[in-house]
Design a protein that fits this description.
- 65% of the residues lie in helices and 10% in strands.
- The protein has eight helices and two strands, in the order ααααββαααα.
- It is globular.
Length: 121
């Protein structure tokens, strides 16, 4: 029961819930999530750390980035599925998914650094 309570508390924060819904669509790095949610990298990292601790997400090294995704844990999958079913067609989840679908990781990294790489080209 303690685990379910921990999971529900974690999903109870709006940004963490939005992150989970994004990660149901595809794996994403911190800079992509920060861009979609329009919050700082440190805030996203803090949320992902808590979500990793309770077993909602896991990170995997992907070149220069760490890609985060929802774990295969059946309880987590069931909970995220229920939440997704209730929120999928509501704002801000709908616009989050639309924005994420056109987002490129490299563009996010450049824009978050103030366009330094783009300026150097």
């Amino acid at each position: 029961m303690i685990r379910i309570v921990q999971l529900m508390k974690t999903f109870g924060e709006e940004n963490r819930c939005r992150i989970a819904m994004l990660l149901l669509e595809r794996s994403m790095c911190v800079c992509e999530i920060a861009t979609v949610l329009d919050i700082s990298l440190s805030t996203v990292s803090r949320h992902l750390k808590e979500m990793t601790f309770v077993g909602i997400v896991e990170g995997e090294k992907d070149g220069r980035w760490i890609s985060y995704s929802i774990t295969e844990d059946p309880v987590v999958r069931r909970l995220t599925g229920v939440i997704d079913g209730q929120l999928r067609n509501r704002e801000p989840m709908k616009s989050d998914r639309e924005q994420a679908s056109t987002l490129k990781r490299e563009d996010c990294a450049i824009s978050l650094r103030g366009g330094k790489e783009a300026d150097a080209k």
